[in-house]
Amino acid sequence: MSQYETSNRTPLTAKQSASVYRVLQSRAAMGQKALSFELFPPREGAEDQLWSTFQALLDAKADFISVTYGAGGSNQEKSFEVLERMAPEILTIGHLTCIGASRQSTHDTIKRFEQAGVRAVLALRGDAPKDRPNALADGELKTALELVELVREETSLEVGVAAFPEGHIESPSLAHDARVLQMKQAAGAAFAVTQLFFGVGFYTDMLAQADKVGATLPIVPGLMPVSNAKQLLRMADMSGAAVPTELAHQLETADEVTARRIGMDYTIALGKQLLEAGAPGLHIFTLNRSEAALELAAGVGLL
Question: Average pLDDT of the chain?
Answer without folding.
Answer: 89
